[in-house]
Amino acid sequence: MNIKTKIAAATAAIGLLSAAGAAGAAEIAVAGVTASSTFFTYNVNHLIDGSGLVGGGLHDGDFHDKWMGDIFVLPTLVFDLGATYSLTSSSIWNYNGGCCGDTRSVNGLTISFSNDNVGYVSAGNFNLSHTAADPFGSDSLGLTGNARYVKFDITSNYGDDYTGLSEVKFFGGAATGGVPEPATWAFMLVGFGGLGAVLRRRRSVAAVAAA
């Protein structure tokens, strides 16, 4: 392996190491969602299937495309992202207008993260906006942390006996702080070894020149 090849390998290895923790944020395809309660005419999967989105970041407001919990309860939702991601944000379309009024919209919301759906760590407390207009847009919440499971604890609504949401999306990238695959490790070790050899060769040449 000549000097140029060694430098190229080392540069590529450094690039891989940097990329492992700095993937660009993108929409995450949610694997599934469960609710502590769901009113019988609603479907919790409407929160993640995009059924009410009509373009331009708007929801159509049709209650057939929403989710709502049972009467007199503040439900909990758990989203399974299918793998661990480094989350950056979430877009949430509240219940808002449509059937029966926007007072069913979520007000207070606590979001928590978990990698095993057992132990959760709080990611923050939020308040969502609401509107009676149709169609309507989303609230964008900033999130920071690694998680496979995201839990929504709804703590209040805008005064109704029922509480619901319309759509939820998450954004992020590859989990930071992860362990590279064996092939990636091998390539990085070759690269770093090559870089070390280059530096040792340069020191030897410098020492000879100085003598």
Textual characterization of the structure:
- The protein has 211 residues and is α+β, with helices and mostly antiparallel strands.
- The protein has two domains: 3-19 and 180-210, no CATH class; 23-174, Galactose-binding domain-like (Jelly Rolls, Sandwich).
- It has helices at residues 3-20, 182-210; strands at residues 26-28, 32-35, 53-55, 58-59, 67-68, 76-94, 108-114, 121-127, 139-154, 164-174.
- Strands 1, 2, 5, 6, 7, 8, 9 and 10 form an eight-stranded antiparallel β-sheet that branches. A two-stranded antiparallel ribbon has the order 3-4.
- The longest helix has 29 residues, at 182-210.
Layout of SSEs?
Elements: H1 3-20, E1 26-28, E2 32-35, E3 53-55, E4 58-59, E5 67-68, E6 76-94, E7 108-114, E8 121-127, E9 139-154, E10 164-174, H2 182-210
Helix pairs in contact: 1-2
Order of helices and strands: HEEEEEEEEEEH
Task: Write the CATH homologous superfamily of the largest domain.
Answer: Galactose-binding domain-like
* Portion in beta strands: 35-45%
Helicity level: 10-25%
Would you report the number of β strands? 10
**Which CATH architecture of the largest domain?**
Sandwich
Descriptive tags:
35% strand, Jelly Rolls, alpha+beta, 211 residues
